[in-house]
Amino acid sequence: MEPHQNIIDLITQLENDHQHGAHHFAERALGIMCAAAEEHIGENSKEMLRSMWQVGKRLIEIRPSMSAGLIHAVTGLWNLVLNEFLMNPAICPLRSWVQDKKGQLLKQLDRAIEAATDNAAHAIPDGSTLFLFSHSSTIIRTIEKIASKDIKVIVSESRPLCEGIKTAEKCSELGVDTTLITDSQTGIIMKDCSLVLIGADAVLPSGDVVNKAGTSLIAAVAADNGVPLYVVAHTWKIHPSETVDLEEKDPSEVLEGIHPFRIRNVYFDITPASRIKAVITEEGQMTTAQVTLAAESIRKSFEVFVSNPLSA
Q1: Neighbouring-strand partners of residue 102
Q2: Which of 177, 201, 208, 250 is the catalytic position?
Q3: Which domains does the chain have, with CATH numbers?
Q4: Residue 125, SS3 per DSSP
Q5: Is the overall model pTM greater than 0.85, yes or no?
Q6: Which residue in 14, 20, 152, 272 is deepest, having the highest Cβ count within 10 Å?
Q7: Phi, psi dihedral angles at 149 (to 5 degrees)
Q8: Annotated catalytic, 201?
Q9: What is the pLDDT of residues 44-85, one digit of tens each?
Q10: Which residue, 241, 225, 169, 164, is CA-closest to 199?
């Protein structure tokens, strides 16, 4: 049973979205799964669940490097709906029923983001100069909470799409003393910084962090200069797998036109846990052991989803 074309179009739009981060992807995935469920309003609940499972599986696969948030969103919604169905197989799928489950998860996500950014804000002392990279809604929320402190931010542009410019604009709008630099100036400027603050697309069970390509280089420069690097990421970013595929995108984002040489545009890289001072979540600063334990719990939930109890 293939999803309707409108659902496939929504999935394709999300797959081709190179502007937004993991939080946006999780929210959109929940909306797409609800849309898949609503195609079966008034029909057999089991068919609705099969449709949700199929769409959820496609969603998890579209962006490998950003799949942590997608996995949490997809498995979370499917399990909530599945458990209610198992308790009452005769239930008639209603729009409000599925939307209510989506709402529960979004509230959970919002609470996690607020708590994680609160914890990050408390960890940043007055007088700090922060080095920021790329664009993260979680980092912007943290900056909003410390904008009244005596802080400065230095933002690396983050080639090739230069999302750092958006970050610099947001920080400046908040009244924060902001400086934008090219990526190549990182080694020159880092000595003037108190700490590096980044978001994450995924936190692996090892404590390694997947983020925008260039993050691992910034981490190396920070380590050489004795500057601590903090990751702000709610636990929806914890990935159940030890490895992820690092996506590679259109070379024209780097350089347009036809050229006699190859152009690579790898979007993400992996920063080792050894170069990360702490991963700050809604549960506080998590150790590598705590991340590993959380990932194991997520892996079990993911395996339940992949096995699909309704496949028989």
Answers
A1: none
A2: 201
A3: 5-114+298-307 (1.20.120), 125-295 (3.40.50.10470)
A4: coil
A5: yes
A6: 14
A7: -75, 165
A8: yes
A9: 677 788 888 999 999 999 999 889 999 999 999 988 888 877
A10: 164
